[in-house]
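Tokens for chain A. Residues wanted.
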């Protein structure tokens, strides 16, 4: 057991840089394509083959050109090669049957890194999910997959406010005036009534009932009725106020 530079205990060792690496540091760019094995193997034999080759297509791995994934057995493979490799297995294959193309170790769970919250676990899970066969590969192993962000959008997610010029303001007012002119005349007459002999417009209270002086409807209301107050009108009209 050795200690990584981040102070985590580990059994994994980078042969290229000759430093211990944990499940997080092993995924850093400087170790992405390194030959990484068990520390006990380095003690016995520190020699290694370079450059690294993809465990699936056997082509030379070049940093920064293609996406790669490190398996749980610590072999490195092109991500697209890993996806094709997993999809080549029959659908009835057991979870332990999905193995590394180089050493035949199970792809999941990682055997060299036991920390399930490590970065190696996360990146390997993301690559397996891309195959669409994650349920077959993971099997009964408990795996947590990050869900997409489903936050509710802001309540006022509208277009930004716009500053209207004087010309735009006049056009806006003209459009509103045209809409008002298009309203039915009955709507205007229901809200307002013109006074007789006057150009002033007065508002008619809906609780005031206008009765013509000679209308027979006036006989329905008694002057002595305590619920109404009669108001004389100089134009031969009577108004009853509900109280």
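Reply:
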């Amino acid at each position: 057991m050795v200690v990584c530079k981040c102070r985590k205990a580990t059994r994994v060792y980078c042969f290229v840089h000759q430093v211990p690496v944990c499940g997080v540091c092993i995924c850093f760019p400087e170790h992405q394509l390194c030959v990484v094995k068990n520390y006990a193997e380095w003690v016995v034999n520190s020699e290694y083959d370079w450059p690294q080759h993809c465990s699936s297509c056997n082509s030379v791995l070049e940093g920064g050109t293609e996406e790669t994934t490190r398996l749980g057995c610590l072999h490195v493979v092109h991500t697209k090669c890993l996806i094709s490799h997993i999809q080549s297995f029959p659908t009835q294959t057991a979870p332990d049957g999905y193995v590394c193309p180089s050493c035949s170790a199970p792809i999941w769970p990682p055997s060299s890194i036991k920390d399930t919250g490590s970065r190696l676990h996360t990146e390997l899970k993301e690559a397996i999910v891309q195959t669409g066969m994650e349920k077959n590969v993971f099997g009964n192993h408990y795996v947590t997959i990050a869900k997409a962000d489903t936050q509710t959008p802001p309540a006022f997610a509208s277009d930004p406010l716009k500053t209207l010029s004087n010309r735009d303001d006049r056009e806006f007012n003209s459009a509103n005036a045209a809409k008002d002119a298009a309203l039915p005349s009955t709507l205007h007459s229901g809200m307002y009534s013109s006074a007789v002999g006057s150009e002033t417009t007065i508002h008619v209270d809906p609780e005031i009932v206008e009765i013509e002086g000679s209308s027979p409807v006036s006989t329905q209301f008694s002057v002595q009725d305590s619920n109404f107050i009669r108001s004389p009108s100089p134009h031969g009209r009577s108004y009853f106020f509900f109280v």
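The radius of gyration is 42 Å. The CA atoms of residues 11 and 47 lie 18 Å apart.
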